[in-house]
Structures are given as structure tokens and as C-alpha cells.
Amino acid sequence: MTMSEAARETSCDWTVTGMDCGSCATKIKDAVARLPGVSGVEVGIMTERLRLTLDEAQTGRDKIEKTVRALGYQIAPRAAGAKKDFVLPDAHDGHDDDHATHEGHDHAGHDHGPKVTSAKRDDSGHGSPGHVHDDPADRGKRWYQTAKGKLVIFTALLLGAAWVIEYLAPEIGKWAFVAACLIGVAPVAQRAFAALRMGQPFTIESLMTIAAVGALFIDAAEEAALVVFLFAVGEVLEGVAAGKARDGIRALANLVPKTAQLVTGDITREVPAASLTIGQTVLVRPGDRIPADGEIVDGTSGVDESPVTGESVPKTRGPGDAVFAGAINTEAALRVKVTKGAEDNTIARIIRLVEEAEEARAPTERFIDRFSRWYMPAIVAVAALVIVVPPLAFGQPWDTWIYRGLALLLIGCPCALVISVPASIASAMSTGARRGLLMKGGAVIEAAAKVDVVTFDKTGTLTHGRPQVTDVVPFGSTTEAELLAVAAGVETGSSHPLAIAILNKAKDAGVSALLSQDAKALMGKGVVATVGGAAAYVSSPRYAMEHGGLDGFGLRQATIFEEDGKTAVAVFREKTPLGLIAMRDEPRADAKDAVRQLTAMGVTSVILTGDNPRTAAAIAGSLGLKFEADMMPEDKLAYIREIGTQGGVMMIGDGINDAPALKQASVGVAMGSGTDVALETADAAILRDRVTDIPATIRLSRAAMANIRQNVTIALGLKAVFLVTSVFGLTGLWIAILADTGATVLVTLNALRLLRFNPEREA
């Protein structure tokens, strides 16, 4: 590809409404991918999203939209490249005249996203009876008020009228059923023909059309009309089931309030929450949701963060504390300074993560997708053989075997099989998101289900990450104040937990840090900076010994601290020891219980820490797990690479210092309450800073994979049973369509069980 060609390609993004089974996504993907200049096509069933790379010199966006509409779906463009384009379908901002505005839309009391009017319906018959897909305007309505519901009622009336005519005038009753069948199947045939023109002969619409018309030719008009009606009923059931599967994810978009109380001087006025910018101040009254990520500047109140982290107990927050958009202020009025724009707040990033996660498809899903591509032609070939071989080879009656072949065609649709994985994955991700457990797609869920070993970073993961100075031991003529002044000078500007502990100690002691410059990290060993015109170090005792910064007495003292589970750092200048500072970071209260749960699940737990063996042993011994100490980042990487050859490995870290290890592990999990790193660096994130959420994540992943296996068994099992019964003439056309629709509905409903799954409950 030349530079000019690459420059012409743009990333395009649409919302496609009406996908209710896996074959819908496959149909759209295949049709669009055939167009010139189109590449990288991704279709998300649960997020109703179409993304692709397009060379508009070869194919225009209008051609993409026309192709999708011709298949019977509605499509509306999303603003390409806009940072605000993070929300799920039904909650994104309109951006052209074909979209309804959101002004005045009240989220209260709704369990679905704001209503969005999709691109204009075309005149190709979309909306007429047949495989009619969800209209965005139908959301929130009862089934009989939707386009699909009206279709069922229409076909039921046709069928009922045919039965009445047959009863009153038997001689023309047959033709009444023929008319009912043809009227009902006409739009289905129209869409089948549209798919055929796009190179897709094996769709549910084409199979349905062949079966219905074939039934008419073998004088089974009444059954053909019944099959058309049952097909319409199945469409309603599939749409309802798919909609419920999306609701859990879609509800995330409603956590952030639509409006905010902006404070400007002494004036408070209501403004759209999406218009808030960094630095503005908002008033959050008791009972209100916080409209943006921010920092409290005035007031103290209990803040219920359960919408974001799943933690149901409100936490007391005051001036200087960070708060999340979507959290609920429970007690007193707060003034909050906005620290992140609407497109970057925690809820927005969670939604963006969920939207994009569907692209990271599980290996099982990719296999089923490949399997379904040859499965459909194989079914059609088998049906043809069933129709042709018995009459030609054994003199059997044609009408009997045509009928059985048509039933086999209807049974063969792979909708249930294709939807079995994404429905389970979407439900699991929704369940996890409600509890602060975020996983980036099916591939991560599948990998987490196979984890045998969990490796933990120590500081900030198994411990609170907020160590406090317990001992300050100056050497020689150095005073405690001088020791702290030098150490604080070296650590000024650092965000490392040990650095913060030293800076806090100096502040509490009233000691001012010496001016420093040229601070440089010594990877895994400490920090060096120019303080008072000369180099000064804050490092591990081992590094200090190697560079003349610690003598035998100092090393013995450091050893005593470490045996007590403290972390000791040496402060020194070139060849001149200044003293030791000891700190302790207590294990999290739930760390021991988390290790116990993992052990009960058959998972081995290991601490990987850069700390010394004695400190690591003190922490590991209290928690009952193994440890590896004195590990540099490259050592952690090598350790995970080695044990990864024996099974699945999950690494838990802070997402920055442990980045290589997080990437090397089968699943890298970042702990942190909604930080950019926690949401964007690793494969998964734990928002509540609870160690017990690690076994909960594995438990949820295992439940999701078990659910997928159940779904595949249901889909293939029902197919196998009814394929056999259809060939032997035990079941007919209407049972065949019920079996196909029933399988799709069953696997979707089974996937919905994951929405009620509690991963925190031990089996």
C-alpha cells in the first residue's frame, strides 16, 4: 500500500440496530467486507456497533449505509474520531438532522438508554412484515407496541382469517392459507434476495423462503402459513432476549446525570453535564449523583460509590478527596472541582472499554464463527441429498422427502450456535462491570477461566500501598532532621508509595526538603538526585552496601527492621552513610481471605516483589502464600514467562512498574480505583482495591465459560435431535422452526442467568 493510499483510509463507526442473533452480525460483516476499499470490519452484536476502515475514493459511506439497510437493518453514523464517542448505542449524542436531540430527556426511572432516532428508513420495504429488525424508537415499549410485535399480530390475523375462511368455505380454504403464506413470506424473500445479491445465499431468510414456498408446492399450505407465523413469533422472542442481554451494559450510560449545578461565583445554574470542563466547580446536593470525576473542594459527606465500584457501603469523603461521576452524594452538600471532561470520566471509560471489548473475541467464539461458515452450506447439501436420494435411489414419494428436506433446512440455521458465545460474554462483562470487575473481552474471560497461578505485586496490591515511616536512624553526626531533609529532597516529586511516606514524615516533623534536581530512578534499586550540590541516594540496603553507602552496623540494623516486616531504605552521599529509614505497609484486611479462596479454587498464589527476602517472608508468612523477592522488572517477566509454559498465569500489579509482567501474563490485572492505568493498561481492572475481587474475577470467568459450554451443548444438541427426527419424518416444518427459534431463545436466556450470578459467593 502506498503512502497516499494509506492516507485516504479513514476509520468509520456506525450504530446498527436490529441485530438479534449471531447470523445478523455475520450477514452484515460479509456484505460490507465485499465492497471495494473496505477492510478491518468489526461488528458487535451486543454493542450494536459497526466499525471498519474505508477508502472513500473507492466506496462512500452512503454505500455502506445503503448496503446495511438493504439487509433490513437500521444504521446511524457515529462521529468518527470524536472523543465523546464512547457511549453505547441509545446513549450517544446526535450529530446530524436525522438524529433526535437529547434535550429534555429524563433518565430517571428508565432502564434503557436515551432514545435515538436512527438514519431515515429507506423505501426498500424495511419495516414491512418479515425479518424486521429492532427500531430504536421501539425501546421501552411493550412487545406488542414494537414493529416486530405488530408483525406477529399481523401474521396471526392472516392465519386466523385463513382458518375462518377454510371453516366457512372449505373449497377456497387452501387458497386462503396460500395467500396468508405468500403475504407473510414476501418481505422475508425480499431480504433473502438482497442477501443473495451480496453473495450470501445461506441466510435464515433464504432458508425460510425456500421452506415456505416449497411447502406450497407439496400442498402443505396450512403448515407453510403456520411456519411463517412462528417465524415472526421467534423474531420477537429473539429480539426481546437480545435486548435484555444488552440492557445490563446499556444501563451504564445512565449512571451519569444529564444535568449539573455549575457554580460561578455566587451564582449556581443548571447546565448539561456533558458541557462541564476541567477546572469548573459544581454543587452536588444530598441525594444527587455526582456529574463528573472531580475533587471535593468544600464539604464532607458520605459518598455511595456502588454505581462505579460495586462497593455498597458509603465512604466519607471530604476536601481533597477524589470522587467519581455517577457516585451518589448521600448526606451533605458538596462542591466538587471537575478534574476530567465528560469524555474521560470513569463511567465513560468503562463504557468505552465495554464497547471495544467485544472485538477481543474469545478463541471459542472465533472457532464457532469459522465452524458456522461451512456448517450452513453443509446443511443445505444434506437437505438436498435427503430430498433427492430416497426418491431417485429407492423410489420413495417425492412430496414426503421434499417435506423432510425442507424441515431439515429450517433446523439447520446456526443462529443459536453463533449467538451462544457473545451473549454469555456480554452478560459476564455486564455482571463484572456492576461489581467493579472489568475484563477486556471474551479472550480475557477465556484466559482467566484457565488460570492456575496468580502472581501478586506486593506494594499497593496485597498491601495498602501507603506505608508509614516507623523508624528514622541517623548515622554519625547526622541529625534526624538532616537525614529527613536529604531524603525528602531526593524524593521530591515522586509518586512512589515509599517516597510519599518519607515526604509525609518530613512534613509531620516540620522539616523542609532540600532543593534537588536531576532526580533519576535506579530501576528497582532506588533514586539518586543532586541535593545541595552533590549526589544523594535513597536506595535499598543492598545497593547502598555495594556503593559504600552502608557499613556493617547499618546492614545489621536494616536486617533487624526487615525481620520485623519493615522496608528499610538507606540514605547516603558518595561513600558517606547518612542513615536508615524504616517503613511498614500493612497487608489489606481481605488479602488473607483472598489467598484462602484462591487455594480452595485450586489456584496457587505467589508474591513477586522487589523487596528483600526477609520483608517478603514476613508478609507472605502472614498471608500463607509463596514469595519471590529481590526481583527486578525483568526478573518478574522471566518468572512469569517460565511458569506460563505450564499453565495460565494471572499477574496483579499497579499497571506501571509491572507493565512488562502484566503484558507477559495470560491475564494482567491492574488494581486501582478508576485510574487511567487500571482501565487502559492491563487486560482487566479491579476498581474496588479489594484482593478478594481476584478470586471473584476467576470465578466469574469460569462461570461464563461453563455457560458457553452449556449454550453450545443446547444449540448443537437440539439441532442433532431434530435433524434426526426430521429425516425420519417424526417432526415437521412447524416443529423445525420452533426448534430453531427455541434454541436461539434458550441459549440467550441461559446467558442472561449470568446477570444474576454473584462472583463473590464461594461455591
From TrEMBL:
**What transmembrane ranges does the database entry give?**
151-169, 175-194, 374-394, 406-429, 708-728
Keyword Aminoacyl-tRNA synthetase in annotation: no
Question: What are the UniProt keywords, alphabetically?
Answer: ATP-binding, Cell membrane, Membrane, Metal-binding, Nucleotide-binding, Translocase, Transmembrane, Transmembrane helix
Q: Name one GO cellular component term.
A: plasma membrane
Q: Subcellular location, in the record's words? A: Cell membrane; Membrane
Q: Where is this region: Disordered?
A: 88-139, 294-315
Supply the EC number(s): 7.2.2.12
Principal localization?
membrane
**What protein am I looking at?**
P-type Zn(2+) transporter
User: What lineage does UniProt assign to this protein's organism?
Assistant: Bacteria, Pseudomonadati, Pseudomonadota, Alphaproteobacteria, Rhodobacterales
The encoding gene is cadA
